[in-house]
Amino acid sequence: MMRLPWRVLAPHTAPVRRASSVLAGLMNFVPACSTTDAHSLELLQDFVTRARRLFVITGAGLSTESGIPDYRSEGVGLYARTDRRPMQYAEFVRSAKSRQRYWARNFVGWPQFSSHQPNSAHKALQRWEDRGKLHWLVTQNVDALHSKAGQKRLTELHGCAHRVTCLGCGAISAREELQRRFISLNPEWRAQAGAVAPDGDVFLEDEQVLHFRVPSCDDCGGILKPEVTFFGDSVNKATVQFVHERLAESDAVLVVGSSLQVYSGYRFLLAARDREMPVAILNIGPTRADHLAELKVSGRCGEVLSVIQPL
Fold it and tell me: How many other CB atoms are there within 10 angstroms of residue 80's CB atom?
């Protein structure tokens, strides 16, 4: 089990960690996996070469190589390391105390979470777009790493933690601006944090957040929420329809780093089956759509995608 060595934090500073721990930590959220064999690489290369308008779905397994943990990976995911569970949408909306706890944890974790950078897998997919191989990319991640890599033909299916929305008037603002407001409202607030979570917050005890102040929307005084799809919420219908349209324009589907356990992403594999589209999956461990794929490759996303050429 890996726990990042956070310490007592000033509200406006990122945690200081030794360089060696940073380098080691980047891969400690990646499940154990042997090197992908040459035959599997050849089959995946052939699959990508045959595709002319490739539709790609990415998940948390892509970002674990950037040092962001996922929820479900065996031995290293959040569910394996702790009994903590992510915030539910209904609880966030219903309870001011829950929102206070959520934002306090998110505030402490933000400097670390927002500093993560794209890895070789993100960069490879961006190159595929530049070469005209990748028609559309749908990510279930909220970490903005595809955008940081320069991906343009992109839908963030579950939103993005770098944006904040008002539940009252719908105004969208930058998460970085909210961080400055937190600092202004809580100049003396300090907290000692535990391990980092996949959605960017850290673990704090309830008594640590009692005096943390949370701002309201500048425009209407409404409740502020990350522009992400919380557990128990549903993806915007217009977004789902848009993605279905991009899928219909494509001729093959590649899943990268996702177990597809959440229906919001799995539905597009069902649609691909109905359209009789070829499907390949690159992931460590089983996925919900293995029975729909003509090719399943086990391997680390960055290692594999870096050697696949967008021919």
Answer: 15
